[in-house]
Amino acid sequence: MTAVLEVTNLCKTYIVNKGQNNVLRNVNLTLHEGEFVSIMGPSGSGKSTLLYTVSGMDRLTAGEVIFDRISISGLSEKGMAELRMHKMGFIFQQMHMLGNLSVYDNIILSGYEALKRKGEKRSRIDVNRYADSLMRKLGIIETAGHDITEVSGGQLQRACICRALINSPKMLFADEPTGALNSKAAKEVLTELCRINREGTTIMMVTHDVKVAAQSDKVLYMVDGTIHGEYPLGKYDEGQGMKEREQFLTKWLMEMGW
Ligand SMILES: Nc1ncnc2c1ncn2[C@@H]1O[C@H](COP(=O)(O)OP(=O)(O)O)[C@@H](O)[C@H]1O
Ligand SMILES: [Mg+2]
């Protein structure tokens, strides 16, 4: 199994009012190609910060993060931005869609941006076609021309997934991707994430929802900036009872102090 993400002794400290807040303290983890890992833990335990630092949205204070064999701390801002654009996809709640663009234009924007890379073989037509096929797959093709204020929460979140996938990333980072959705929309989004993962994309997702986490391969539990425990669920296969997975996971979470 090839490692996509290797994190060694990762520390992140914020200085607030001259005081130090050690938000991540010696985090170690490895994600292999095709893995789907959930991060759970109490609010404020550092889950979002972990996603930001390993994906280069935020600088790390100490330790090492190797993504696709590249040490990200050695990268310039530009190098990091390129890596993020071409190899990573993001579903973060605060990364809002642009209100003055249609759903479709929001999705293709970073696809067009990525065409500026030297040696890029795709054309704008290829990006358009890919956006089209993603929107069809995720069942939102009919919203293409709509303004983003004219679609439902579930549709918007599926559009965010299309946007995150437009440059065929190696890895997808998702921060509570179902958090703001009703249960029907959450289920739709989760189904899509599972399908994308089956097609080969590695996923690291923060979630508070046991039902959502139960579909992933492994759950990491964070407390106070460290990984407190790890629960290997294994790949879900249809023959297995999902209820049973949820029950086992819940029992373990209780033991972790959830
Ligand atoms: N930009 C920032 N500046 C200062 N402190 C921050 C910043 N972002 C997060 N923190 C602090 O880091 C801790 C962990 O936050 P976060 O990673 O958002 O936790 P979680 O996602 O698990 O709820 C909190 O104490 C929060 O106040
Ligand atoms: Mg968070």
**Separation, N- and C-terminal Cα atoms:** 31 Å
Secondary-structure element order, N to C: EEEHEEHEHHHEHEHEEH
Q: Bin the strand percentage.
A: 25-35%
List the strand order in the largest sheet. Answer: 6-7-8-3-9-10
Shape: globular
* Number of β-strand runs: 10
Describe this structure in words.
The chain is of the alpha/beta class. The protein has eight helices and ten strands. A hairpin with a 2-residue loop joins strand 4 (62-67) and strand 5 (70-71). The chain is globular, with a radius of gyration of 18 Å. The mean pLDDT is 94. The structure holds adenosine-5'-diphosphate (ADP) and magnesium ion (MG). Magnesium ion (MG) binds at residues 47-48, 206.
